[in-house]
Amino acid sequence: KFTFNTVILSFTKTKSMAEAQKCFQEMTELKIKPDVVTYGTLINGFCNVGAVSNAIAMFEKIIKGGFTPNIHTYTSMVNALCKMRRLDDAKKLFHDMVSKGYVPNSVTYNVLIDGYCKHGHIDDALKLKKLMAAKGLKPNVFTYCTLIDGICKVGMVSQAYEIFEEMIANECHPNIVTYSSLINGLCKAGKVDEAAKIFEEMIKQGQAPDVFTYSCLIDGYCKEGMLEKAQSLLKEMSSKGCIPN
RNA sequence: GCAGGUAACAGAA
Questions:
Q1: Which residues have C-beta within 8 Å of that of residue A66, sequence separation ≥ 6?
Q2: Which 123-162 residues of chain A approach strand B with CB closer than 7 Å?
Q3: In whole angstroms, what is the distance from residue A96 CA to residue A102 CA?
Q4: Which of A64, A139, A145, A209 lies at a C-alpha separation of 20 to 30 Å from A19?
């Protein structure tokens, strides 16, 4: 069973859902009982290729079959619905889940926070962050990255920066995604100089910029017409072993 | 038989 689960997971990671399903079938033919992980892996796999209807079908099938989903299963489904822009359905499932006695963990909150952010519902996202804190779940790097990106994207870069400061004050260490999101936000707001400062800061903090980080800043410089800066960054990234794509 | 190992969240163009 563990072997099959691992193989199925590999197929879902390479987005080969046909292979994953074949593997699942093979496993049942061998009378090996799929478990909650097997179903969870498949559901998440379907979600990641945008086949949310397959995910929902499988979710309903296992429930009808008397199988008990766990928090991972629900979280995957909530995430899928959010990514499909079906925020209301996602919220509904979240509440169903809670009313059935499941306790959302930080990933569950994070996916819903991301859903709210991607819809521009920043107030609701922040409320959810408060709620998770009230439940004793500390916002983590994912929570902060999600919020910083979301808040930047509704054009409230200075508020995003406040969240960034809050995360540092709460001893949650910014990572490459945090810095890149903030740099992107600042660049898109035309604040390339500030973005460059954050870029320096991240290096000072021992976080090596990657292709995403460089792309954000290079794009920022280009859009401001600062082409020399853009070119020197392009050179710099190659010299630091970060291959431009 | 027991224990352990497997699945869910964030960034650019």
A1: none
A2: 140-143, 145-146, 149
A3: 9
A4: A64
Is any atom of strand B within 7 angstroms of residue A10's beta carbon? no
Burial of residue A133 (number of CB atoms within 10 Å: 0-12, 13-18, 19+): middle
What was the ipTM of the complex prediction?
Answer: 0.73
Of A80, A60, A57, the C-alpha closest to A69 is: A60
The predicted-structure confidence for A211-232, as pLDDT tens digits, reads as follows: 999 999 999 999 999 999 999 9
Q: How much is the pTM?
A: 0.91
For residues A46 and A61, is the Cβ–Cβ distance under 8 A? no
A37 beta carbon to strand B: under 7 Å? yes
* Strands of A22-173, DSSP E: none
A184 touches strand B (CB under 7 A): yes
Q: How many CB atoms lie within 10 A of CB A43?
A: 27
- Stretches in chain A below the pLDDT threshold 50: none
